[in-house]
Amino acid sequence: METPVSLIKGIVEEFLKEKGVEQTIPVPVQMTRDEFEGEVTIASFPLAKVFRNSPQAVAESIKEFIEVKHGNKVKKIEVKGGFVNISFDDSYWIEFIRRLSREDVFPIFPEKTETIVIEFSSPNTNKPQHLGHVRNNVLGWATAMLLQRTGTKNVIKVNLINDRGIHISKSMLAWLKWGNGITPEKAGKKGDHLIGDFYVMFEKEYKKQVDELIRQGVPKEEAMERAPLMQEARELLRKWEAGDPEVLRIWRMLNDWVLEGFDITYKRLGITFDHIDYESETYKLGKEIVQEGLDQGIFYKKEDGSVWVDLTDVGLDHKLLLRSDGTSVYITQDLGTIELRWNRYKMDLMIYVVAEEQEYHFKVLQAILKKLGRPYADKIYHLSYAMVDLPTGKMKSREGTVIDADDLLDELHQLAYEKIKGSPKTASLSEEEKHDLAEKIALGAIKFYMLRVDPKKRILFRKEEALDFEGYTGPFVQYTHARISSLWEKAGETVIDFQGGYEFNASERQLLKIIAFYGEILQEARRKYDPSALTNFLYRLAKEFNRYYANTPIVKEEDEDARKARLMLSKAVQQVLKDGSDVLGIPLPEKM
Known about the structure:
- The relative contact order is 0.11.
- The chain is globular.
- The chain starts with a helix and ends in an 8-residue tail after the last helix.
- Helix 18 (474-491) packs antiparallel against helix 22 (560-584) and helix 19 (506-516) runs parallel beside helix 22 (560-584).
- 56% of the residues lie in helices and 12% in strands.
- The protein has three domains: 4-88, Gyrase A, domain 2; 120-394, HUPs (Rossmann fold, 3-Layer(aba) Sandwich); 405-584, Isoleucyl-tRNA Synthetase, Domain 1 (Orthogonal Bundle).
- The protein is an alpha/beta fold.
- The strands form four sheets. A five-stranded parallel β-sheet has the order 7-6-5-11-12, sandwiched between helices. Strands 1-2-4-3 form a four-stranded antiparallel β-sheet.
């Protein structure tokens, strides 16, 4: 489906061709600023350099070309200081929203043949997912959907479950010491919450031991290693890597409990993966790659048996690859995991959605792969994101001061339910339907809040703000969608095929202008791997529609042509809100 923006870009390309310009020039098309009349603006400044003329002269030339060749599509053209501001003809807009309101996909992007693998979530099996994981999950999902929506059909969503290592040994040791055989069923808890309790328990007891050693005069770093609990946890890890049958049995049992809990959280968030890898399976391949590096003289071994790589030649430092006891570290399994994925997918790009604290880690990973001569070394992209804070301060898993994702969703659900249960607009809904609506609102609130901010900026999460039905929030976008559904229900319409004459007013042209640039916003969000461009767009569209709705009769409009045109425009707005919300993973209720 042609868009107003693609139409103008095509016209500019036609203009350049007629003028004998064969070089490819990015067409400088932008949304007309609100203080000027028009919907689409051409900035002539880049073209002025090509024609060696003033921007004003080039703009006038473009205006004349459009008036002669495409005058039937425009209502008015103004040149303002090198900018060509174009107002489309009302008949063009009628045809545009007629097609859009009849559920045509808008816009359609050329299909890309590339394969992109995106890894996100990547929780540890020693605790439940928390608020920080929610940001990771919704950012990874929305980015994957953006890639697919803008033409890359072969987007593979993967998850790496960190199910081995010292952190897992800590929670396992605590369960063995203090669990007395407790199970999720006996405790009445999800498995991930139960095991998370033991992880916190370990850290509290471990801190007591470290503090005691420090009081005895032992340096902090040494105390952290000498603490009996840490020694026991490391021994448990050595037994695990050595294949001790009893240790493996307990490990599988506890991991299964946690994974069952993860599945419930993912299902509630609407998150699915095309493939799930497990560190317990990929670290072995990583150790093989470390041995390969040793054999080739790329890595080196210290006297204590630990294996390292020297990266000082690329501005980094010496990096540990295997501990002296032969156990692997994070980078070891990452080497194995990306090798496995390359063999599986031959991807053109591997995106890691991982917190900003790991930026150095991915620089190291890429540097090691380059030293090993891997063909995928330059196909890595770290989509880093900042932390989520609470009004009470930074979350800390070890101290048990995090907000678990499940608890947060429960709280948001209840708050949303309290908001809607007595509303006249939901009076016809059953209790089950009200709770279903409350769940959608809760999901819309948390997802929009996590995505409305540039990934590289920290988020201070306030649940009351996230649930504001009139603010820069998901519920506001959801409410706008429901309002339009109510309009159509009151009008008794299903499809309108209006092709008559209608003159759009300034408010309607403002809505049309915003809709026209939806495709540009999607591409910008994709280009930057930043869904906040899309959330801002959806909020602006919803806000503009509500302003229009408050001042313009739609269903009650007596003029039939005006009524049909306004209903079609409302449907076009709704279609774009729905498409954009689908990308973000935000459910849109019909009633609210």
